[in-house]
Amino acid sequence: MGNEMTLDPVWDDLDKTLGQLFMMGFDGTSVTPQIRQLIQDHHLGSILLTAKNLKSAEETTKLVYELQKIAYDAGHPVPLAIGVDQENGGVNSLFDEIYIRQYPSAMGLAATGSTELAYDVAKATAQEVAACGINWIMGPCLDVLTNARNQPLGVRTTGDDPQEVSAYGVAFMKGYKEAGVATMGKHFPSYGNLEFLGSALDVPIITESLEQLSLSALIPFRNAISHGLDAMMVGGCAMSSAGLDVMHACLSEQVVDGLLRSDLKFDGVVVSECLEMEALSHNIGVGGGTVMAVNAGCDIVLLCRSFAFQQEAISGFKLGIENSMITKARVRQSLRRVLQMKSKCTSWEKALNPPGIKYLSTLQPSHTSLSTKAYNSSITVVRDKNRLLPLSNNIEAEEELLLLTPLVKPLAASAASRLLSDSVNQGSPEPAVWERSASVMSGERVFRELGRSLARQRSGRVLHTSYTANGVRPVHENLINRASAIIVLTADANRNLYQNGFTKHVSMICSMQYSAGGEKREKPLVVVSVSSPYDFAMDPSIGTYICTYDFTETALNSLVKVLYGELSPTGALPGTISQRQKLHASRQHWLVEAFNEERDAHSLDALIKTVMEGTPLNQHSELSSSSSNSFLLRHPEVLEAHFVVRNSSTQALYGFCSTYFFKSIGTGVIGALFVDPARRKLSIGHSLHNRAFRTLLQREGIKRFQLGSRLPSIFLGIPTAHGAERKRLRSWFANMGWNTALSRAVCSMVARNLSTWNPPDGMAKSLQSAGAEFDLVYGWEYAGPILDHIKTSNRQGLAEVYKLALADPSACGIIRAKRPEDGALVGTVVLYNTQSNLAEFVPAMKDIGEPTGGISSPVISPSVGEYSTLLQGLILLGMRQIKAQGCNACILDYMDGDGNFDGLSAMGFGLLHNFEEVSCDAATWTMVPPS
Question: What PANTHER family does UniProt report for this protein, alphabetically (predicted)?
Answer without folding.
Answer: BETA-HEXOSAMINIDASE-RELATED, PUTATIVE (AFU_ORTHOLOGUE AFUA_8G04060)-RELATED
